[in-house]
Amino acid sequence: MLDSIEDKDDPFSDEQPSISLDENGFPKHSEFEDKHPNLVGENSSGSSKDGSFAAEFYRCGTDWSTLSSKEDGKCDSNKKMKQTNLFQMWGIKNRMDFDEENENVTRFGGNLGFHLNGSSSSFDNRVGGLNDSLDVVSSVVEKRKARPCPFYKKIPGTPFTVDAFRYGAIRGCSAYFLTHFHADHYGGLSKGWAHGRIYCTPITARLVRMCLYVNPSFICPLELDVEHQIDGVKVTFLEANHCPGAALIHLNLPDGQCFLHTGDFRACKPMQTYPLLVNKQVDILYLDTTYCNPKYRFPSKEEVISFVVRTTKACLKKQPRTLIIVGAYSIGKESVYIAISEALKVKIHANASRRRILQSFDWPHLSKNLCSDGKDTPLHVLPISSLRHETLKNYLKTYQNQFTSVLAFRPTGWTFSESIGNQLGLIKPNSKGNIQVYGVPYSEHSSFTELQDFVQFLKPKKIIATVNISNAASREKQQSYFRQWLNGRVLE
Ligand SMILES: [Zn+2]
């Protein structure tokens, strides 16, 4: 199946050793190297003197403050390090809690009773408990022994951290930034949060308050495209083209340094017109490298949406009593069902919990198109984890007076197949009886080519990958792509 990519490339599939961590959240090098000599990559041993950014970065990595100044003498070239399974370090035993597109709320949903058992009312009731369950999960995560915050979540030269809520109070941190409302980014936030101010966009702020019950006095919403002064740093949030409320964070430090943190993002041409990014030096780019591999050259969101709408119309022409189902995370993928809704001029049915979240976006065109009774529209949104044949068959039974078949779409970058590439017409549905499920490569993260385009546009001095960094080989591979994109220039 198309999803096999997910397992094939799983960077976390290996059993990870139990090792102690240093004060920055990385394994103590000597202990790790002793136990796992085969896992110590080039950039943490032999080639550490090759002067490449990767070598330098990971050599200096146990002290993040060295990233702000090469002259401060803190970079200890003897201090080799190696990073381990981040999920393990974060105390997440079951990696199925985390979706590979970093949109793990689905998996939380899957674990928290999203599964259907034939009755739409029981389904709605179960999902209605999502907010409570999320809160419980966050509390549990927070109550686990706080682990050290990895250096790459701390912004050098500032008292800021980004998406670092699961480490308890972080010494020296006065402002905790949250890039967007996906659980692998907000994990650790709960109503008991009292470690400091949380900066995020207004949509994310509403979700943090509504779903996690965080004390509003800690939540500081910042509008997009407006420069704010925070602890002497100029901070501007920019649209990240990821999920509603997701932001890139642009930081201008008093010493003139400029950093860009992408959070999760899908790079696109309009970003190359952002005034803060055009012909401006970026000293460090913190980059979402979810699909930083040349095999991920999936089509644009617009192309996928157009395919979904075409397929839906063709199906309805053949079988007018078809129920259209779009799988979605608790937030994300909205454009897919909004496009179908607009093309067919039908409303969108979602359960009460999802409607509440969608209404919080304050998008009038979406809010007015939501409907509470599934019988009133052929377009339904379900958790992406529930798009299984058996589940859909049971779901269809609850609407047997209205619909006779199901056409479902499962939108995620992980459904991308190299053999299909950009030829969406080659995608075949997974069909069983009167249920058809299409996996469509709709991603809210950048494809490899989009990452390349963005990096070549921005020309940052230094790039810190934030995803798939759990092993030296993967980190070095990413750095080699960065070097190629910047015409072989050795990154600082
Ligand atoms: Zn995300």
Automatic annotation (TrEMBL):
KW DNA damage (keyword) present: yes
Localisation: Nucleus
Record key words, sorted: DNA damage, DNA repair, Nucleus
Highest taxon above the source species: Eukaryota
Compositionally biased region (Acidic residues): 1-13
One GO MF term: damaged DNA binding
GO biological process: double-strand break repair via nonhomologous end joining; interstrand cross-link repair
SUPFAM superfamilies for the chain: Metallo-hydrolase/oxidoreductase (SSF56281)
GO cellular component term of the entry, any: nucleus
Domain named DNA repair metallo-beta-lactamase: residues: 365-470
Cited PANTHER family: DNA CROSS-LINK REPAIR PROTEIN PSO2/SNM1-RELATED (PTHR23240), DNA CROSS-LINK REPAIR PROTEIN SNM1 (PTHR23240:SF36)
Family the entry assigns: Belongs to the DNA repair metallo-beta-lactamase (DRMBL) family.
Name the UniProt record assigns to this protein: DNA repair metallo-beta-lactamase domain-containing protein
Organism this protein belongs to: Saponaria officinalis (Common soapwort)
Highest classification ranks of the organism: Eukaryota, Viridiplantae, Streptophyta, Embryophyta, Tracheophyta
